[in-house]
Every structure is written in C-alpha cells, then in structure tokens.
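Batch manifest, entry 17 of 40.
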Amino acid sequence: MLKPVIFKANDIRGITEGDAPEWDEAGAYALGGALVEVFGLVGRSLVLGRDMRLSGPRMSAAFVEAVLDAGTDVVDVGLASTDELWFASGLLGLPGAMFTASHNPGAYNGIKFCHPGARPIDPAELVAIARRASAGPVPLAPLRGSRSESDVLGAYADHLHSLVDLTGIRPLRVVADAGNGMAGHTLPAVFPGGEGVPPVEVIGLFTDPDGSFPNHPANPLIPENLLDAQAAVREREADLALVFDGDADRCFIIDERGEVVSPSTVTALIAAQELDRHPGSAVVINKITSRSVAEVVAEHGGETVVTKVGHTFVKAAMAEHDAVFGGEHSAHYYFREFWGADTGMLAALHVLALVGRSQAPLSELAAGFSRYAASGEINSEVEDQAGAIDAVAAAFEGRGEADRVDGLTVSGPDWWVNVRPSNTEPLLRLNVEARTEDAMAELRDRALTAIRG
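Output type: structure tokens
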C-alpha cells in the first residue's frame, strides 16, 4: 500500500498505524526496490537509520529486505537522529535513507533520502521513486546484497566538537527537551558530563526515546510544546534551553527568561559568527526568514541567497553557492562543514559558544539581531488552497510587489506577507513581518480574513 498522499515535496511521510494506514510494509518493500533501481545502486551500498517511532523496526526491515533483494548492501546505523544519518552518509560516502516522520504524530512514519555526502535528492527523483514503486516489483538481483551494522554516534559527536571551539567558555546550565525523540539518543554523546567536552550542565527533559510521545508532541513549532522547557529554564535558573523535534534535526532556542528566540534571530546570530570566520561567503535563507538576517549578512560582508522553503531546496542552494551557512524559520540550520546538511545539534553548539564567551545573557545578545515584529507561522485548514492564495493576492493588490516563487509573497519597503501550502501537512501557512507590531497585526488580520473568509 502506497497512497499518493505520502509523497511530499521533500520526502515520504504518511500514517502507518490505526484503521486507515496510508502505507505499510509491502509499500516499504516496494520503495526499497524502487530506490535501488532509480539511483542505480546494484552492487553498491546504502546507509540506513531510523528514529524511535513504533513502526520503525517493521517498516525499515521491509525496506532493507527489498534493497538486499535488489542487489545492494546495507550499512545499518540503527537508531539515529536524522543529522546523525546525514553524518554517516558524509563519513562513509554513501547514499542514505532515514526512516522518520520528523515532528508528525506517532501514527506517522516516513523516509528522507540523500545522495553520497548527504547531498539532497531532486524532487523529480522522488517522483521517479514513487512511480517505480507503484509499477510493480523490481526484479531480484543475481547476487543478493549483505547487511552490516555500524555505530557512528561517537564519531558524530567528535565531528561536531571539532567544528565549534568551546574551550574556555564559562560554565553553562542548559535545559534540553528531547520530546522523547532522538535527541535523547544523541545528547549523552555530545554532552558527556564530568570532564567531557563541552563544559555544560545539561538538565534533560523527556530524554527516553519513545515513539508514543507520552509527554508532549515532538513538534517545537507548536507553542504549547515549549512550555515545559520554558518553565524549567526559569525554575532551574538556566542560561538557555534547547528544544528538539522528533528526529532531532531541528532545535528551538529559549533564552534565560524563558522566552523563545526566533529561529530567524538564531540564523542571524550564527551567520554573523560564520561570516567572521569565512568572510565574503554566501548564506542561504528561505522566503519566510526575517529580513533581519539579510541585513546582518550584509553588515558582515556576506551574500544572501533566497530559496524556497524545504531542506532539499536549501541544500541545493548551499551546494550551488558554496554557502557557509543556511537557516530556515522552521529552525533547520545548515552548515558547509557538515556537508551542507541540516543539524540542530551543531546549531545548539554555536549558540552555546556565543553565550559561553560572553558575560551577557542570551536575551541581550539576541536583541540586536531581532529588528522586526513577526506573526509567527499561522496555519489554516483550507479546502481550496489555490483560491485562498488568490484571495490574499486580491486583498493586497496595489500594496506591494508580489511573486509566486514559494506560494505568494507580497512585500513592501519594511514589511512582507507570505502564504504557502505546507510541504508536509494539509495546511495553508501564513507568515507576516513588519517594522512595528501594529503594522504587522494589520497585515496579518487582512491576510487571515482573505484566507478564512
């Protein structure tokens, strides 16, 4: 079973549990064979990982059987965060497949793919995989592949530590909310405690990987899922908090007051550091990243590259422009020194280095990089998404310049409005930014009225 709805813009994602599954083990098997054929992997190897989702063992096992039957070897890294799988692909020089549904509820599972060196696949390749998987079984290879296991967690942590110098930072107390996701797997390796590197006291929340998500959904984009970390920062007088999504490739940052630091502000903070180390480099952002980032990049002598929302688009732009860093407003952060791939943990280490080398709290450090009022992402369930987008265009006709690069963006001298369909969910997403809160609220309300009627 492979319902068309599971094929998203950047990956595969759909329901595997309950009375109405959207794909199953037979579908996973079909996808494994299709991947081998489309990528030409017969006689070659593939690295594979999975997150803590309850369907992960059975779904990934079916996929592996197909890959082996099609004549491809599998290097299985077992339980892993998505950025750990990207690391394995880069380290081993192999294409990769990661079984995860990221921040989606526990009934979901999915697959993210990459080429060797964690390079992104093209959306057209995902379409080709979908078509081949639906066309019937891939012929068995004359020589079946072999499966081996590899533990790359220690090497992953060592690589992250090699990219951020944390020697000599002041002692920090950090709350880390894993949301019962894969950050609970990677945190002990990255923050070993005792005399380990870095010298950080970690207060862990929900660090036992559990695909039933017993405490709160592993989706930090929803404000309610940040409340535990915000309360813990205040109660424990911590310097900051890190909140990860289910597969731990995203990290939200909370300051010492318990206030969320906008991912755009985090992008600006890290961009400034990376451009000081690599002058004149490019920084990639997407259509809903704050204008503050482009301003900071220019001030530090860099070039801003704007692309569509989504990791495949950002990774492609990172490679095309040899960008030193990239950031999305969804808290995906990309690094040239990490094969251009996204890693929430490396972003966290950069923020810790910044705070640890300053006597000022994070809230003060971030203040100079937050220059606009933002609505945050506002989601709407809309049956006629194209019609709703056209209604927004009509509502703002004559007020600014419009483009359809990624949904609809209307922009003025010191404001912009973007409305676009989600890449992963049946939602229409609205983001608004303006110089003042009052201006932002007026623009937001006008757009919402057009969207929701």
